[in-house]
Amino acid sequence: MTAPVIAVTSGEPAGIGPELCLELAGWSGEGRPVVLGDRELLAQRAAMLGLDIVLRDYLPAVPAAPGTLDIIHLPLAKPAEASILDAANGPYVLALLDRALAGCQSGEFAAMATAPVHKGVINDAGVAFTGHTEYLADKTDTPLVVMMLAGDTERGPLRVALATTHLPLKDVPAAITGELLERTLRIVDADLSGKYGIAEPRILVAGLNPHAGEGGYLGREEIDIIEPALARLRGEGLQLSGPHPADTMFTPPVLAGGDAVLAMYHDQGLTALKYATFGNGINVTLGLPIIRTSVDHGTALALAGTGQADAGSLFAAVSEAARMAQRATARKQA
User: Fold this and answer.
1) Burial class (CB within 10 angstroms; exposed 0-12, middle 13-18, buried 19+) of 47
2) Model's pTM, two decimal places?
3) Is the pLDDT score of 1 beyond 90?
4) pLDDT of 178-204, one tens digit each?
5) What is the β-pairing status of strands 282-286 and 292-295?
6) 8 contacts 34 by C-beta, under 8 angstroms
7) Which residues are annotated as a binding site for substrate?
8) How far apart, in whole angstroms, are the C-alpha atoms of residue 149 and residue 78?
């Protein structure tokens, strides 16, 4: 089977994204990464870090040799310096995403993996931007997508999806509706089956309140919203358990009963996930018509240009995107 081509967007030019992408030179893992970014930026960052890397225009028919990085050049609006943000380059960051998405939609790329972006500088450029996930959903006319983070632990893979993402905590209870939970869980179930190859996914669902509401004494969302939604979906054949108290849901005996977790809000799920997998964790966008993975960290401006950034999460994102693409190809050929 031909190695699937993974478009890797180099992200915020002032952050660590460009130098993480340089670590893909001569990649020998799963898939074939192609970095999207400004050639001069990548060359300057390589020189700053003392890396002897050949930057080569992507040639589909010719694999990259050791020490060579396949790139697709997209120009910066202004020269970029490590750790110094410039709103002028906000449109450049979005152009990387648009080029990767177009290639995935056309079949040029099998999937995309994204280095971190800085939401603030894109908004400073005059573009309303809340994140990769929402941007790609809008660009593909996808009404609902689900953020899931995943990583390997000593007890096996840990996957945590989110019912709500970047919301202030005070807004979360009103956002948790039966309709949202049903739509979200259907997406998680479908992609665990389709993109991960899990025949009958088992999903652990968290409660919203402490002790999952303590029978209503600490909140009624579990009784009035979450439990009825789970009952309806179990009637459709989904394998769901919960609502589980969040403070014990990530213990080994509970996790052993599921293939993924659905948390009600960002920090409820991702605190545990990042504690267990930081350095090799990734972000996967479920529900999109394309395959998209990402690193599980930010731009780390303070580390940009120092050579201290860890490329483990990017490596994991590229590898997982390749495995998903291979499964998709196998399904089509079956």
Assistant:
1) exposed
2) 0.94
3) no
4) 999 999 999 999 999 999 999 999 999
5) antiparallel
6) yes
7) 132-133, 274, 283, 292
8) 33
Are the CB atoms for 144 and 187 separated by under 8 Å? yes
Q: What count of Cα atoms within 13 Å lies in the side-chain half-sphere of residue 216?
A: 4
Structure confidence by residue, pLDDT tens digits, 44-60: 999 999 999 999 999 99
pLDDT digits (tens, 9 = 90+) for 79-109: 999 999 999 999 999 999 999 999 999 999 9
| d(C-alpha 201, C-alpha 240), whole Å | 9
Residues tagged in the binding site annotation: 132-133, 166, 211, 266, 274, 283, 292
Binding site membership for a divalent metal cation: which residues?
166, 211, 266
Burial of 131 (0-12, 13-18, 19+ CB in 10 A): middle
Cα(331)–Cα(221) distance, integer angstroms: 39
Q: Per DSSP, which regions of 110-264 are E strands?
A: 111-114, 146-153, 156-162, 202-206, 239-244, 260-263
Element (H, E) at 33: strand 32-37
Question: Using only C-alpha atoms, what is the Rg of the chain?
Answer: 20
Domains contained in the chain, CATH given: 1-142+288-334 (3.40.718.10), 144-281 (3.40.718.10)
